[in-house]
Amino acid sequence: VKPVLWNGQEVPPGASVGSGVLRFGDGSRVTIPPGLVVRLIQSFRQHDGRFYSLIGLDINETGTLDVQVTPGSRFEVVTPATITGVRGTRFRVTASIEDALYRVTVEVMSGTVWMHHRWHREEARVLSAHEERTIDYPRRLISARLPLSWAARRVVLPDDYLYAPTT
Q1: pTM to 2 decimals?
Q2: Mean pLDDT for the chain?
Q3: Which of 124, 138, 147, 161: disulfide with 114, CB 3.0–4.6 Å?
Q4: Which residues of 96-116 are buried (b: 16+ CB within 10 A; e: fewer)?
């Protein structure tokens, strides 16, 4: 598996990086603006050969990520309030703090995004090109729910059953 690169330097899982570009082994990329820090959770090749990559934003991080995912690859952006899962999509994720609320807005440029609220049991909402959705959640409730070392909760996308391992 090709390593994940940040501004040309290899980045291990768990590392946090700031301003620049994250490039993944499948050609996907994330542009990180100045002042925003992103954590690389993991990036690996699945048993069927497709890449699966996850990045995360911590609760005090605000700004807009520009994400371009290579078609066929699985990619998730995890924030304290949302999980956004995609394949072959260009989209933006904006995290902000408005008074006592943590706000996440997902704007789809092309392709399809599945956006899921981390703390509600609702189904993931599907957003298509030129759609956007905003989720607000009280910061104090997020802080109370997040463990000290929080991890991603996988979003099940509609065609996942096609790639399930056979025994």
Answers
A1: 0.83
A2: 84
A3: 124
A4: eeeeeebbbbbbbeebbbbbb
